[in-house]
Every structure is written in structure tokens, then in C-alpha cells.
């Protein structure tokens, strides 16, 4: 596997770790939380992240296909988030050539997803259920570990 694919797979594992932390133990009704001013709800942001991974998979296959999911089912979108990560990770782990450059996958859907993980974490604070800070440099993040079962934090702080 190329260094570029290895880095992309590590990026997906990082999104899974950080995203999992922001999604885990969200309070009842959290999906409806917004920052105000007509901004997206938490579940709309999460659905958009699922759309990003579907787009990323299409890009990896050489297609440019975007579709938007409308859903207010928090649990279904959490499941879709991790399933999307797993599908893209499996595609990157395959020996098949990519239909788009690795740099485009990073700068497009993957970087966008990291931004949205931060938005969900910020909305957790707005909802009165903040995610504990963490030294992510010390986190156990492993390539291929893109499901909801992530390693426990190594160094959290308040």
C-alpha cells in the first residue's frame, strides 16, 4: 500500500476516533440541537458526514456522484457514519487503483468530515453535554479501526 493510502486510512481512523467520541453518549434529543441562526441541526450535520463518505467512495471508484440524505433519526445516522467510514476504508485497503488522486480525497470529503466532527463537538457543549478535551497525540488510533468500538482515551482533561 502506498504511503498516501496509508495516510488516508489513518485519517479515516482519526475521524472515527474523534467522531466516535463526539457522538458517544449524546443526550436525548441532541440531534435537534443547533448553534442558532438557521444553522444545521446536529443530525443534519451527521447526515451530511454520511453523504461525504458516500461521495468519497464514489470518488475512489472514479465517479463524481453526490446525493443528500434528509434524516432526523440520530441513531440511524450514527450507524451510517461508521458504515460509511468502513466502506471507504475497505476501498482504500483494496489493491484496486483509485479513480481520483489521494490528495483530492483528503482535501474534499475527509477534511470536510473533520470540520463537521468539530461542529458536533461544539454542539455538545451548547447542549450542556460537553465532550472532554483530550491530547489526541497520545490517543490510540489505528489504521482499519473505523467502527464505533474505539480505544478508550489515554489522556483526557477538563
Explained architecture:
The chain is 54% helix and 3% strand. It has 158 residues and is mainly α. The protein has one domain (3-157): Up-down Bundle (Four Helix Bundle (Hemerythrin (Met), subunit A)), CATH 1.20.120. Strands 1-2 form a two-stranded antiparallel sheet. Helix 1 packs antiparallel against helix 3 and helix 1 packs parallel to helix 4 (102-126). The protein is globular, with a radius of gyration of 15 Å. The model has no long low-confidence stretch (mean pLDDT 97).
Total separate domains = 1
Task: Give the SSE order as H and E letters.
Answer: HHHHEE
* DSSP summary: helix tally: 4
CATH architecture: Up-down Bundle
Q: Record the strand order, biggest sheet.
A: 1-2
Strand content: under 5%
Overall average residue pLDDT: 97
Helical content stands at 40-55%
Please summarize the sheet with the most strands: 2 strands, antiparallel
Quick one: CATH class? Mainly Alpha
* Morphology: globular
Q: What are the low-pLDDT stretches, counting only 5+ consecutive residues below 50?
A: none
Amino acid at each position: 500500500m502506498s504511503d498516501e493510502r496509508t495516510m488516508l486510512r489513518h485519517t479515516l481512523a482519526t475521524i472515527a476516533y474523534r467522531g466516535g467520541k463526539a457522538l458517544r453518549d449524546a443526550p436525548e434529543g441532541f440531534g435537534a440541537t443547533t448553534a442558532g441562526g438557521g444553522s444545521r441541526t446536529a443530525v443534519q450535520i451527521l447526515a451530511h458526514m454520511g453523504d461525504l463518505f458516500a461521495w468519497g467512495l464514489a470518488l475512489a471508484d472514479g465517479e463524481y456522484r453526490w446525493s443528500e440524505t434528509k434524516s432526523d433519526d440520530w441513531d440511524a445516522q450514527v450507524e451510517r457514519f461508521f458504515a460509511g467510514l468502513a466502506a471507504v476504508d475497505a476501498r482504500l485497503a483494496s489493491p484496486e487503483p483509485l479513480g481520483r488522486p489521494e490528495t483530492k480525497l483528503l482535501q474534499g470529503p475527509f477534511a470536510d468530515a473533520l470540520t463537521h466532527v468539530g461542529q458536533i463537538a461544539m454542539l455538545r457543549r451548547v447542549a450542556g453535554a460537553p465532550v472532554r478535551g483530550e491530547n489526541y497525540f497520545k490517543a490510540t488510533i489505528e489504521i482499519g479501526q473505523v467502527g464505533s468500538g474505539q480505544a478508550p482515551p489515554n489522556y483526557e482533561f477538563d
